[in-house]
Predict the structure of Transcriptional regulator, AlpA family.
Amino acid sequence: MQTNPKDQPQPKQPTHGAAPVSFDGRVNLTPTRPDKLLRLPRVQDLTGFGKSSIYAGVKTGTFPAPVRLSARAVGWRESDIFQWIESRTATATKTA
C-alpha cells in the first residue's frame, strides 16, 4: 500500500533565528521601490543650482548631503532633493 505524500506531516519551516510572528490578517504596505539616487546633472536640473553652489550648500548644511556610491561617485536621494525643494517653496510663499 502506497501512502500519498500530501497525507504525511510536513516539516516545520525554519525561521532562521527570527521569532515566529502570528499573522493578524492586516496588510502592511511597504514602499514599492527604494529611493532613487540622482547624479549631479539631474540635481542641477531640478534645483537650478550649479555644481559649486550645490557643494557649498552641502558644506554649510543648507543642502542635502550626497551618498557615496563608489570612490569617485556620489548621488543624492531623490526624496531629500524634493523635500529640500518643497521647503524652499514653502519658505518663499511665507515671505511673499
Remarks:
- The mean pLDDT is 83.
- The domain at 36-96 is CATH 1.10.238 (Recoverin; domain 1).
